[in-house]
Amino acid sequence: MRLPAKAKPNAIVIAEPMISQIISAQPNFPLVVANPVEPTYEIRATKNMGLGMFATRALEPGDLVLSERPVLVYPNGFRSSNPGLSTSMEEFEAAFVVAMDEMRAEDRIAYRKLAKGVDVPHAGDLVRIATANCFRLPLSLPGGPNKRWTIGDYRAVYLDISRINHSCSPNTVADFDFPSFSMVVRAAREIKPEEEISTTYVGTLDRSKAQRRQLLAFCMDACGCSVCTNPVSDASESRRMAIASYAPWTIVNHLAASIEAPNKLLVDLEQCLQNVEDEGLQSIVCYPMLLDLCGRLAGIVGNQTLADDLRGKAEMFYQMRAWYTVPKNFVEWVFEPLEGIPERVRWAASHGPQFQQMQMLNRWSPNIQDSSDVD
Ligand SMILES: C[S@@+](CC[C@H](N)C(=O)[O-])C[C@H]1O[C@@H](n2cnc3c(N)ncnc32)[C@H](O)[C@@H]1O
């Protein structure tokens, strides 16, 4: 399918007919793609990773770097032999060649060269190229509070976003905005002019450097980011493991252990926030939850200035992934009302795996204790 003519740039979406229908049935679809008035980046050569995207001005956390509609969207794991797909290799090749019309001349030339210099490249090569230049796109629609219906797992090729290199300390958060059918990239921390803009291609938190290397092998021999090329990375590994124990599905154990001692819990959580900053991991999904928890505890122990500062920051980071409301709802449920916090925390900890599963399935609701889903 192609998006309606008013959509610029146009995107070619290779999808199953039912999914194409769902996409085009959205009211007023697609909305205009919003971008900063003053450009924030340029594309140029890096030292060791081919082309990359670089900031042309200073950016603050939360600032929009760019929003971009893909030129091509295709099912993840596309293979000619994939029996589940109705799209053939020939159709993929034709779609890719049309998508190239939307690309800059130099990109088109690069793609053709990559595809062994032939004018109309072989689809097999195109899949390889597209896969190395794509972004994973779990295509999903907003479906009410705490819900996002995943309608398929796709990959997408962009003119500019596909130039963003991977870093294990990415300085942006990227999230797909369905109404405008565009990927929205925002700064996750301060970015200086000339600094390379980075994203993550894999989970950066709960994996060691060796595991990340394995996961990245589909598109690079070795990760050239500053974390992986740092010869002294042991401290980084242990900081990441420590942070991972505060992820949404494990944090409840820390809360249960120290909820009766808010000062101690605050110190532990502040250390965790420090680790996040030292590792440059403000892009992780649990960062706003950590800020929020610290802010609430600071309020409880009487430090209102710190509480306001941290909760303001938390809100901004929650907004960057506004559809993922599980961590925010969890913190609200624990802390509101102030009476009964220890009981609620102990209840959540005692429900262990069941509790985790509810969170991960996005089925968390403040009334979950009373719900028949629980027991
Ligand atoms: C989505 S593209 C990024 C743009 C690419 N550098 C280019 O010139 O078009 C992904 C490719 O960039 C390179 N790349 C991205 N991140 C890298 C990293 N951290 N280390 C080494 N190579 C990387 C790899 O060749 C990878 O297949």
UniProtKB/TrEMBL annotation:
Residue ranges occupied by any SET domain in the UniProt entry: 39-202
SMART domains, per this entry?
A: SET
Against PROSITE patterns, the record matches this protein to: SET (PS50280)
Cite the InterPro entries for this sequence: SET_dom, SET_dom_sf, SET_domain_protein
Spans traversing the lipid bilayer: none
| Protein name (database record) | SET domain-containing protein
